Amino acid sequence: MNEKDLLELWNTKRSQIINAQIAPTLMLISVFVLAAYGKFDMATDATKYLVIGVAAATGILAIISQYAAIREAESLIGDLKKISKPTKLSKKIADSGELLQLSAVAVVGLGIAVFVLVVWAVL
Fold it and tell me: What is the pLDDT averaged over residues 12-26?
């Protein structure tokens, strides 16, 4: 692949990470609004567990998608480092490996933390 193709792929991976956050964000907004209005106080246990299960499934799938995109982007960084005369943009992206690793940790860590908060808000 040439530099232009690699940069386009980089942007695709970034978009995938961002798009993978849409469904969980909408789910979290719904849970937040319902919890803020005290709707879970009146809900049956089955309803509460369903909400927790759907939130878990949505979050897990999003984390998997984001983590996969991050891993693929890490490979892409390796390819960018092999370019003989890279542009400044390619150099900057190639130097962002540590940031990607931090992103992977943050995706998993924040995902778990938010799920704990969802369980607390619903129950």
Answer: 88
Structure tokens at 48: 């509460």
Give the CATH number of the domain where residue 100 resides: 1.10.132
Is 104 strand, coil or helix? helix
Contact by Cβ (8 Å): 58, 23: yes
Domains contained in the chain, number: 1
Give the domain range for residue 36.
3-122
State how far the Cα of 108 lies from the Cα of 117, in Å rounded to an integer: 14
17 pLDDT more than 90: no
Instruction: Write out the two tokens for 31.
Output: 């849970």
* Sequence letter at residue 68: A
CA 88 to each of CA 48, 53, 102: distance values in angstroms, whole numbers, following the listed order: 51, 45, 22
Using a cut of 0.70, tell me whether the model's pTM lies above it: yes
